[in-house]
Write a structure and sequence with these properties.
heterodimer, A: alpha/beta, Rossmann fold, 6-stranded mixed beta sheet, 4-stranded antiparallel beta sheet, 11 helices, globular, B: mainly alpha, 8 helices, binds adenosine-5'-triphosphate, binds magnesium ion
Chain lengths: 274, 267
């Protein structure tokens, strides 16, 4: 593990030359994404470019075909189940859907990781849960069931659940999609303040350029399985690169093709394609 | 000629694919069972998890079991009386009803009802948890969904089915009594005494219990596996639920034959 020895202690998550494919389709084609401890790092890119895949690699849910995924110096794909679970206690992932347990109330959802991983007495557990719910502004909703929450509320509950064990790393998968501007602002502010107050390293995956740039310290732009631009949000927004401009300005076609890889259109229509 | 050859190879190829696919799923189901069994000791120490599922799997299935048991007992009594009375053997009605229930209908019908009521619900619940990323979320919280979600449900099913089968038989005997003694005027004394002297603990009751335990394991295993293995979409969950009912029913009927043949031992 010579690569581990030479690592920069400031880098919490290091993704080096990672390739990943599903079947014949390669989804990540050699990407490098170092993420600094204590920062908010944005990963932006179009739908289907492999952002969620990247988070799943960091979380150890899938293994890369090639390259290294290091979290806190540990190579995630090489960990055994116990070590991986130990590492996951220190990281949290906010799923696109929130993934709240539908058979548990808001309170019990937030209490779930504590009940599973600690033996805290009920009174302390209650205090911790209520503090986290207060942080996301939903202390009053603790009795509700997930089916009674709006999308924005559900995401805030999921956020409270994610931070209840005080992780070192949070990965947010599309925290803004499907929310109204006010809820977007609330979530953005929460992400920033969690980062500043608790020192949590955050990875924000999103295609919401404005919100994401506002709260992040550093941004990566993905397209077609590669990193096509990086820098501080200001740098990225000023970038002259064709790739970056296409994404930032929301142009439908450009260096990143609009079409899913396909055979020539005429061949397909005339039935000549295989 | 050529077309016929292609047809034949196509059929062969599809057959091969089906067989391979089935074998692969069977293998996965077996590995899954091993993984669940290795999680059993951990779950046994958290009995509350099993108790919650016992309620969902057992108590909520109770009503349909009791009602069905009642009717099956009543029908058995009616049918049995009409045959027995021809031989002047209507005193044995209680014995006949009890033996049919304890040895055969109790475990089998309970298992079929269980697959339809509790098994399908288990599959749908687990499949939806998978489709809505709840299981993935749990994994990312460093909680193993197999021990936290699946094993308690599996164990609850394994415990509940024999209990439900026992209740089914008990209520069935009562139903048989209502019809036989209440409506057909069989002597109550001989109804009960024939049953008491001739139902053997080992050959009758114990074998019935063994059947229901086996059915409990198989039905719960299928239900939990189908849910966990479901394609995480609404359609995938619907198909999985469907498969649970079909596979459970077929396995129960086939295993019933095998177990009966083994215990009667004279084939
Ligand atoms: N389970 C899977 N099986 C096969 N292919 C998959 C699977 N999950 C994702 N993919 C493919 O991998 C590619 C990347 O998916 P991913 O979910 O990482 O995209 P994304 O960048 O998160 O997109 P979005 O912004 O829409 O969430 C997609 O093109 C998709 O077709
Ligand atoms: Mg995604």
């Amino acid at each position: 593990m010579s690569a581990t020895a030479s690592r920069d202690p400031d880098i919490l998550v290091d993704i080096r030359d990672v390739h990943f494919s599903r079947g014949d389709r390669s989804i990540l084609k050699g990407i490098n994404v170092p993420i600094r401890r204590g920062s908010v790092t944005a990963i932006m890119g179009g739908s289907g470019c492999g952002k969620t895949t990247l988070l799943n690699l960091i979380g150890g849910r899938i293994k890369p075909n090639r390259g290294q995924v290091l979290v806190d110096g540990q190579s995630v794909p090489d960990l055994d189940t116990d070590a991986l679970y130990e590492l996951r206690k220190r990281m949290a992932m906010l799923f696109q859907s929130g993934a709240l347990f539908t058979d548990l109330s808001v309170f019990e959802n937030v209490a779930f990781p504590i009940r599973e991983h600690t033996k805290l007495p009920e009174s302390i557990l209650r205090t911790v849960v209520l503090m986290k719910l207060e942080t996301v502004g939903l202390r009053g909703a603790r009795e509700l069931m997930p089916s009674e929450l709006s999308g924005g509320m559900a995401r805030r509950v999921a956020l409270a659940r994610a931070i209840v064990l005080e992780p070192t790393l949070i990965m947010y998968d599309e925290p803004f999609t499907g929310l109204d501007p006010i809820s977007k602002g609330v979530i953005a502010k929460l992400i920033r303040s969690l980062n500043e107050n608790l020192g949590i390293t955050s990875i924000v995956v999103s295609h919401d350029v404005a919100e994401t740039c506002q709260i992040s310290d550093y941004a990566y732009l993905m397209g077609d399985g590669r990193i096509i631009g990086e820098g501080t949000p200001a740098e990225v927004q000023q970038s002259k690169s064709e790739f970056v401009r296409q994404f930032m300005d929301g142009l439908p076609d450009g260096p990143v093709p609009y079409q899913h890889p396909s055979s020539p259109y005429v061949d397909d229509l005339t039935g000549r394609s295989p | 000629m050529n077309a016929r050859l292609t047809l034949a190879t196509d059929v062969l190829r599809n057959l091969g694919a089906v067989v391979l696919n089935t074998l692969e799923r069977l293998g996965r189901a077996a590995l899954f069972l091993v993984e669940m069994l290795s999680g059993v000791p951990v779950v046994l120490r958290r009995f509350i998890l099993i108790a919650q599922q016992l309620y969902a799997v057992g108590v909520l299935t109770l009503l349909i079991i009791l009602v069905s048991g009642m009717f099956v007992g009543m029908v058995l009594s009616l049918q049995g009386y009409n045959t027995l009375v021809k031989f002047g053997a209507e005193e044995s009605l209680g014995l006949m009803v009890a033996l049919s229930l304890v040895r055969e209908l109790g475990p089998v019908v309970t298992a079929l009802l269980f697959a339809g009521r509790a098994g399908s619900a288990l599959t749908a619940e687990i499949g939806l948890m998978k489709a809505t990323e709840q299981l993935a979320g749990m994994e990312m919280m460093a909680v193993n969904p197999i021990t936290r979600v699946l094993v308690p449900r599996f164990l609850a099913g394994v415990v509940a089915l024999p209990l439900l089968a026992a209740l089914f038989s008990a209520v069935g005997v009562l139903g048989g009594h209502v019809v036989g003694v209440g409506m057909l005027d069989v002597d109550a004394g001989s109804f009960w005494s024939q049953m008491q002297t001739n139902v053997d603990f080992q050959t009758d009751i114990l074998n019935g219990v063994i059947k229901s335990v086996v059915f409990g394991i198989v039905c719960s295993w299928i239900a939990v596996f189908e849910g966990y293995d479901a394609v995480p979409t609404s359609e995938g969950v619907a198909r999985a639920t469907n498969r649970t009912v079909v596979y459970s029913s077929l396995s129960v009927l086939a295993l019933d034959f095998i177990l009966t043949a083994l215990t009667l031992g004279d084939i």
